[in-house]
Amino acid sequence: DMQTRQDLTAARLLDLNPDMLVGGAAKAAAGGASGDAASLAAGGARREVEAAPAQKVDLSKLSDKGAIVWKRGGPTLTVFSDFHCGYCRALSQQLEGMNVTVVERPISVLGTRDVADRVLCAKDRPRAVRAAYAQEPVQGSGQCDTTGLDENEAFAKKHGFTGTPVLVRADGAVLEGYRPRAALIAWLKGDAS
Question: What is the reported pTM?
Fold first, then answer.
């Protein structure tokens, strides 16, 4: 869709087969399989990979300095993302229509640290998140403390988050990659989907 600058085909393919994910493929690449997150995001070859074992993380060790709350609603969902990741963009559009509180924690998997800095320092962070995903200029960015983004990066590296998006429920359960709305709703309720 050229007007909204969205890749409709990728979103539909993920709806049909959510097991083919950037996050999982990036882990496979780190383990020696062919392909990487950047080539997948650019439309490279996809491989199915085995699901990683269930993982939990403790978000309480992170300060609020690197967190961008851009939507408030029901249960809290923390999303480690990259603003140039097409799956992250599709996920953010999907979360817009869901009853969730979204805490975005940008990490630079695809080289977007400068964009993340501008979004974090923006006066209107929700608007800045939308602009960054649309690859539009981020308005009203000043200078601020961006050490929270360093924290996000270190946390992601420590826990092996090599691809994006990575979702974390309030109880610390981790889900890597984009999922269709129904799967997300089930997972947020505590189902192991």
Answer: 0.71
